[in-house]
Amino acid sequence: MYKKIAKEMTAFLKECYTAFHAVEKLGKECESHGYKRLRESESWEVLPGGKYYVTRNDSSILAFSVGTKLEGYSFNIAASHSDYPTFKIKENAQIEVNKKYMQLNTEGYGGMICSTWFDRPLSVAGRLVVKENDHFTTKLVNVDRDFVMIPSLAIHMNREVNDGYAFNKQVDTLPLFGGAECQKGDFKKLIAEAAGVSEESIYGSDLYLYNRQEPAVWGSKEEFISSAHLDDLQCAYASFQGFLQAGQENSVNVCVCFDNEEVGSGTKQGAGSTFLQDVLWRIHMGLGKPKEDYYRAVAGSFMLSADNAHAVHPNHPQKTDVGNCVYMNEGIVIKSHAGQKYTTDGVSLALFRDLCEKAQVPVQYFANRSDAAGGSTLGNISSTKVSLNAVDIGLAQLAMHSAYETAGVKDTYYMIEAMKRFFATHFYEKNGSVFCRCN
């Protein structure tokens, strides 16, 4: 079962070249399960028993299913993110070097491990904004071949490379695109050909580098899986699988995948935006319920903020907390932080731990070393717009923010099972206590 699910996930990951492609695939998966697409610019008809999804910026997606017994209802929300650290192509992309080379002008997106991007086949994918008559449409594009590479500087010319070299993103990480025969304008021409549009029709773009290396299952017992952007598409995939496979009558189930987590979430489509708040409010209004009931629903709601966690590194075990450290293939990680970088508190931890026990899914606990700062994630950012009980969870992995990350084969299965149990459970608050009931 574990390997079957890992194989299905790798098939998904192989085609998630960018956040735009990931959201397109998740949308198609929703449609295959009978979900109707809504658009924020149009009127909504939300009915009990209905299944819907909506996107924002083509890079964030929110799907929801509505129960049929909604007296005292609440929201069950699972959140993940669609983006990952990479390099974005600048508008004036081509840089000529001595009339012998052509580079692409890029800038870093998110906090990547730069060294992992060198000397491997890369390509370019993303979104084009195309003018057709008097209107603009978006079109996804992928140059589906080994297209560019970032060559390392030979050690003979950089003796310090193994002694803590600081990479300069304007100098060291520009990809090589062509040789002496490459002409000005060739990049845009090739992008247009890959998209099947004319060069003149392209008025804007959001293009990124991606790693061409395919996912692999490996290890002495085939216990590990490696792939690009496991953080956080492993959680996104598992969350949506659990969401689509389970449900219950007394809640509105919500599965959201935000863009731009890697750059702080402060965009119109990020966790810090009004996206989640807007959709929850429109669901409530569409059901014809009074305003007071919305606040009651949110008070009894529960969010799983799902973003991967740091496994103990075999070469550097001292980098993790002595007691709250986690390992691949040993279950879902519950993340806590005294400064609330993670949303987990005693209540949300107890609720999620109980849920996993009932789902027969193992859990483990993560905290940063007390002398090391950790990153924030989706839960505490989104709670500034929609405040509810939330727990930060994830799956243990190595090499987070590398161009090629590693996780455990079993853990995707564990996350799917926990999500199925979560979306089959009704959470509600009564007399100051939180209760849960599974269908």
Helix content: 10-25%
Uncertain segments: none
Please tally the helical runs, counting DSSP H or I stretches of 4 or more residues.
9
The largest pleated sheet is described as: 9 strands, mixed
Using only CA atoms, what is the Rg?
A: 23 Å
Mean pLDDT: 95
Per DSSP E runs of 2 or more residues, the count of β-strands stands at 22
Q: Numbering strands along the chain, what is their spatial order in the largest sheet?
A: 1-2-3-13-4-14-18-16-17
| Helix-and-strand structural type | alpha/beta
Distance between the termini: 25 Å
Described by the principal axes of the CA atoms, the overall outline is: globular
Q: Which range does the strand content fall in?
A: 25-35%
Explain briefly what this protein structure is.
The chain has 439 residues and is of the alpha/beta class. It has 9 helices and 22 strands. It starts with a helix and ends with a strand.
